[in-house]
TrEMBL record, chain A:
Pfam families: ABC2_membrane_6. This is ABC-2 type transport system permease protein. It comes from the Bacteria. The chain crosses the membrane at residues 26-44, 112-131, 143-163, 175-197, 235-254.
UniProtKB/TrEMBL annotation, chain B:
The keyword Transmembrane applies. Coiled coil: none annotated. The keyword DNA repair does not apply. The chain crosses the membrane at residues 31-52, 64-84, 146-175, 196-219, 239-256. Keywords: Membrane, Transmembrane, Transmembrane helix. The lineage of its organism: Bacteria, Bacillati, Actinomycetota, Actinomycetes, Streptosporangiales. It comes from the Bacteria. Pfam families: ABC2_membrane_6. PANTHER family: INTEGRAL MEMBRANE TRANSPORT PROTEIN, SLR0610 PROTEIN-RELATED. This is ABC-2 type transport system permease protein.
Length: 265, 268
């Protein structure tokens, strides 16, 4: 456990080195949030209520989504694992007397913890400053949001871990990442809230893990009960996907490590 | 100009194309991925118009025209000049110094570095949108207007190229600022994918006079549709795209020279 805490701290410190890059990403997330929000405001200006969403709800989801980019790494960066599989350094990782999945998870949670303070909070503050957001007064709902964000980080890691693990079979994960970085934002409700998708498409996307990254946390914040059980149902949905992805990751790790052939001395 | 910039540009770009053609499957798959990346934006626009008939007075086909003009200009610029955004990386690793000692303009070398024809994939959805819009809209096609369409697309592409270079020049001063430039380039393209009228007066003015995004697609679309600006801005602005393109390219060239003069190697 102490080792994992140290890895967590290293992940946190590593990303805190790039200060200008962090500042730049807040600006980028803020700009994209503002553009998306203004487009949706124009849409809701033409039609004030769409599938139960108001303009305020949509803008709130837009900024929550932009705030979640840094912490769930939905647009990347990929885990270093993919690159280490390709160049063989993964052999070193496998020698460590620490669980493989846990090692990478601890490191990524460190990254997420730094992103929470340095990107998520400032980006949401930009949204608060520029637009009217629909924020709950109920502290319970804020607590539910905190849990939802934590679970979103786990789901985000679970997905990226699987993308990286594909490297054991494909050697080069760039193709997988390219597809992932376009499917993730679209299927999660970040490019456009899922409530604005055609109903059959939205119904399918709501069963996939990506919805747990943005759409479900947004609905928990907005207090909408789409899943049975309201916020609890949403959290359960995220928890089930997080557990499934991590279990799949662990099972595939066991299979993958049997394939490892490290070339040369 | 032709001898010093275009010929080396074409040669270097072609060398990269041949290199990438060595892995044809990878090339095709990554091209498809690029196509998907811009395809989802178009899909989002179509989904939005599933709920409303018009945004700020612009119908689906008019919005597709704006989207198509922006996409064509922006992604062509990305193909031609997009690599300049890696300037900071080249400075940090010292490979920019290597470019400076070679007898070809460093800007040409930077722009053609890892030139990738797969970026053409990004152009497919906007080309489809543009073709659909031009086919469906009732445009009064005079020879002048047809010729102007070409001029407008070239001007828009030049404006976007200048924005890429301007964004890259910031990295001469702050090498880590690659993402900051993305706010200008990708953010600018996201903003101008929709008719500027939907953002209201303040944003539209900033996107006309501060960062001239309006001349990539919004003003050209008003010209092609021959309709008044719902924001009530000066009607002659729609003819200004070529002038703006020349001015912005001159500004980008000046910024590049200033940056280059300011540049001191990392020393390692």
């Amino acid at each position: 456990m102490r080792v994992l805490l140290a890895v967590f701290a290293c992940g946190l410190r590593r990303y805190s080195t790039y200060r200008v890059a962090t500042l730049s990403s807040i600006v980028v997330n803020g700009v994209f949030g503002a553009v998306n929000a203004m487009v949706l405001l124009a849409v809701f200006d033409a039609r004030p209520r769409i599938n139960g969403y108001t303009a305020e709800d949509a803008v709130t989801q837009v900024f929550l989504a932009q705030s979640l980019i840094g912490i769930t790494a939905i647009f990347g960066p990929p885990l270093d694992l993919g690159g280490r599989i390709r160049d063989g350094q993964v052999a070193m990782d496998l020698l460590r007397p620490v669980g493989f999945v846990r090692w990478w998870l601890a490191q990524d949670l460190g990254r997420a913890a730094f992103a929470l303070l340095s990107r998520t909070a400032p980006t949401f503050a930009v949204g608060l400053a520029l637009f009217d957001l629909a924020l709950p007064a109920d502290p319970l709902r804020w607590a539910a949001l905190a849990a939802a964000v934590a679970l979103a980080v786990l789901v985000g890691f679970g997905l990226r871990y699987l993308y990286a693990l594909a490297g054991f079979w494909l050697m080069d994960t760039r193709g997988v990442n390219a597809v992932a970085w376009l499917a993730g934002p679209f299927c999660s409700g970040m490019v456009l809230p899922l409530v604005l998708f055609p109903d059959p498409v939205a119904a399918v996307l709501r069963t996939l893990p990506w919805a747990a990254l943005v759409q479900v946390p947004a609905e928990i914040l907005l207090g909408r009960t789409v899943l049975p059980g309201g916020a609890a149902g949403g959290l359960a949905y995220q928890a089930v996907w997080a557990a499934l992805l991590l279990a799949l990751g662990a099972a595939l790790t066991a299979r993958a490590t049997r394939r490892v052939v490290v070339q040369g001395g | 100009m032709v001898e010093r910039a275009l010929v080396p540009y074409a040669r270097l770009a072609w060398a990269w194309c041949r290199a990438l053609a060595q892995y044809p499957v990878s090339l095709v798959l990554l091209t498809l991925a690029q196509l998907g990346a811009t395809g989802v934006e178009l899909l989002a626009l179509l989904f939005v118009f599933g709920h409303v008939d018009a945004l700020a007075g612009f119908t689906l086909h008019e919005a597709l025209l704006v989207y198509g003009l922006t996409g064509t200009a922006f992604w062509l610029a990305d193909l031609l000049m997009g690599s300049v955004e890696r300037l900071g990386e080249h400075i940090r690793t010292g490979s920019f110094d290597t470019m400076l000692v070679r007898p070809v303009s460093p800007l040409v070398q930077l722009a053609t570095d890892e030139f990738s024809p797969r970026r053409l994939g990004k152009n497919v959805p906007s080309a489809v949108a543009l073709a659909t819009a031009l086919g469906a809209l009732d445009i009064d096609w005079t020879p002048g207007r047809a010729a102007m369409l070409v001029v407008l697309v070239v001007s828009g592409t030049a404006i976007c190229c200048a924005l890429w270079v301007l964004g890259a020049c910031v990295q001469f001063f702050v090498t880590e600022a690659r993402e900051l430039a993305n706010a200008l380039t990708y953010g600018g393209s996201a903003l101008s994918e929709y008719p500027l009228a939907i953002y209201g007066h303040g944003v539209a003015r900033a996107a006309t006079f501060l960062v001239p995004l309006a001349f990539i697609s919004y003003q050209p679309a008003l010209y092609l549709l021959d309709r008044p600006d719902p924001l009530g801005m000066w009607p002659h602005l729609r003819y200004a795209s070529p002038v703006v393109a020349v001015l912005l390219c001159a500004l980008a060239a000046a910024a590049w020279r200033t940056g280059l003069r300011h540049y001191r190697s990392t020393g390692s």
